[in-house]
# Entry
Amino acid sequence: MTTPADTTPLPKQPPMRFAARWSRAWDSDLSWNFRHSPVAVAAAVTAVLFMTLALLAPWIAPQNAFDPGAVNLDDGFLRPMEKGAKGMTHVFGTDSQGRDLLSAILYGSRVSLLVGFASVGFSMALGVTLGLIAGFVGGRIDALIMRIADIQLSFPAILIALLVFGVGRGLIHPTQHERMAVMVLIIAIGLSHWAQYARTVRGATLVEKSKEYVQAARVMGRSPAAIMREHVLPNVLGPVLVIATINLALAVIEEATLSFLGVGVPPTQASLGTLIRIGQQFLFSGERWILFFPAAALIILALAINLLGDWLRDALNPRLK
Amino acid sequence: MTQPLLSVRNLRVEFPNRRQNLVAIDDVSFDIARSEILGVVGESGAGKSVTGAAIMGLLEPPGKMTAGAILLDGERIDRLDLGAMRRIRGKRIGMVFQDPLTSLNPVFRIGDQIVETLHAHLDMSGAEARARAIALLREVGIPAPNSRIDAYPHELSGGMRQRVVLALVLCTEPELIIADEPTTALDVSVQAQIISLIKSLARTRGTSVMLITHDMGVIAEAADRVAVMYAGRIAEIGPVREVLKAPRHPYAKGLMGAIPSLARVNDRAAPPGGGQGRLTLIPGNMPRLNAIPAGCAFNPRCANAVDRCRRDRPGLEALGPVQVACWVATGQA
Amino acid sequence: MIKSPLIEVEGLWRQFDVSKPWFNRIIEREPRRTLTAVADVSFSIERGETFALVGESGSGKSTIAKVIVGLLEPTLGSVTIDGIAMSDPTMVDQQLQLRRRIQMIFQDPFASLNPRWRVARIVAEPLRAFGLLSNAQAIDGRVSELLLLVGLSPEDSSKYPHEFSGGQRQRVAIARALAAEPDFLVCDEPTSALDVSVQAQILNLMRDLQDGLGLTFLFISHNLAVVRHMASRIGVLYLGRLVEVAMPDELFDAPRHPYTRLLLDAVPDIDMTGRVRTTVDGEIPSPIDPPPGCSFHPRCPLANGRCKLERPPLLPLNAAQPTGRYVACHAVAEARG
# Structure
């Protein structure tokens, strides 16, 4: 594991440590830049609010949207703010099954965000590792990894995800499909985005590798793995953070697209994409709210995350070169 | 007395940021006479490049000139609009930077770049301009200019590129050349060639040069007068021989003592490691712009500092052939 | 027993493949191209001395440094440290031990310290890597000691590199090198990125450390004045080959090789002695395609037909009474110069 030196408290004043760190972070240029960018603050507030609400869905949603028993078929197609049979006000109305849309959106965002975060984490781990190895080791391994990345980047991400998803489902026993659907989706979306991380990290690694602090570590006889992990990795993560933020929005949209196409999560665990697919069936029969609210939720979420990513990229830009 | 070509009066440049207002140049005044080479020397952060940028009107934002005046041939050029300033930069003031590639377009042949510049400023036919370009390349010492004129910048060595930049600058026959570390990126033997080229151009064409460098050796070779800068101020200015051989300002003295020399043999007996004895030191570091001390900026590092040095800022005062900003040296402590 | 030199470099060659990628070579029908950075270089360094290598860009001085510290493998030739050949596969254990005793100080103190690490961790890295200390408290104590040794304060250990000036960073880099308790320091242009007043501080510090700790230095620089100040023996490199080896006073008072003379002549006359300079035309040729014969002949005022064909070997200046002074020049050997 990494050496503990940079976290070991100094002999004196250990209680000061947290406060000092906090004030340093607050005083940093990044934080100052953030506080003086209204768009970034608004986007961050929206995104955080959205995520909190989604996370707390089981406790704050009026209805358990994933529980068929909680839904009353007689409440189908209620307009926004209409009262249902049990006297419950459906703020966003209900769908054809009588499911409360507000609850469905809260639960659906939960699924969307889970898939988004997990697939970004997966593609980031994969891409950063491969990029680091390609850049640091070089030679044939580099050529192999980067050619695979090039090939993958020449296809649209959604196509890759569809392919992986199809193969994944083919490999899994049909009785397991529902249970494994989210997992397969995460892997499919994750695999469609790793190449971007790998490219960025490889480029940054090539730059860092030639710097003298890496040579100094080699003179000390540190192993390549230790140098990659302790020296190079922390110095290439800046741009990765930007890509990850922007990719989070992309992954949420990609998940929605797959679910919209009907290959994503099953309707029993409806995500935002599933809700939009359901909603679009009623677009021309007048019940527009069934499409409108899930679609608006997806747009607000994706926009907020994207704006945050844009701000982050600009704020870190001088160091990205 | 004739009017100097360039006159900088009480120049002050500030870089405001969200925390404080950094004063990069504080009350700097100097003149450059026609066909004179003024060396501006100092360590990194002393403000020498910022001074050059201020004269050219090329301060990087958020830097801005907040006081003082810059006069070219008696006319103020610090308040001109962008277009007028650009015309002066293109025509009357030439610029040479450390990296010649900042001035050369990598996708055009060097000859085409020179010809284009000639067309832009002088009314010339194509054949005339090409002949003039070859003549210029020959003047800056490019061997076989007839064939090199069709080379791309990347096909030339660093020294050759710097010569091409000089040829490009000479196209418009500027009155003043501001050269910011023109030899720093070059090898010693090539550096000597470029220095003597700049010198001979100033002599034969009567061009004035502001030569910005951190290298005292370059100053010693090329400059007529030298300004030693410290923390955004001029510490000492005068004829190069006087300042280098008998510096009056304690910082200039320390700087000269700190330079290892080929000729100077130190009298300390050789220690076991061999070689010569110790170099004299200026203790400490140059202050950061956000922590420039009150009074004389050099006082915390100065062995001679007295109370007045910590209280009042010394201005440049004549002391024999030079001007020095030091209370002690000028006998006013 | 005769005291062996600490470092012996024998017939060292180092080439780099600078060909275009395989695919481009096939399409453009270009052969492989190699750059010879170091060609047939031999020298030895005695304990406690400061051997300086001086040369301009492309002279191969940094490549030699990297081969000695083990960052690069030699293409041909050997490096022997304290009697142990670094390429001998039967001595791997001893070689690992030796690695600790050879440390390096780099040119750019803004690149040689990991910007994400605190000074304490940077200076402690060799202590942990070589297993010199394992107890956290002992490591903290040693780091403080080392920081004091290089003129910093123990409080600096909690700072990040960007909080320091260039000179202070170079002090941190020196403390890190010393943490390994080396005998031998390879200093690759240690002051060329620093301002003059800071350069003087670092040079003095290095001299003090050498006297105090009995270190041996390989000092690499393009700055002749700095080399004269530091070295006890100097080797002049041109296009990857040693052209002259001499004691500083000999070299600076009576340079023999025409390239050494050119180099000395090119140094600006800072003392304003009124010395007349003869600037030599031309620039260093590309090391990918060096001239045949003596590689300096296209710029050499003394070159004749032999110089264009036959490469001069590095020979003792006075074969009858070897003084440790060597020159590789036909003109000098034939007493033409």
Observations:
- Residues 21 and 27 of chain C are 10 Å apart (CA to CA).
- Chain C touches chain A through 37 residues (CB under 8 Å).
- The radius of gyration of chain C is 22 Å.
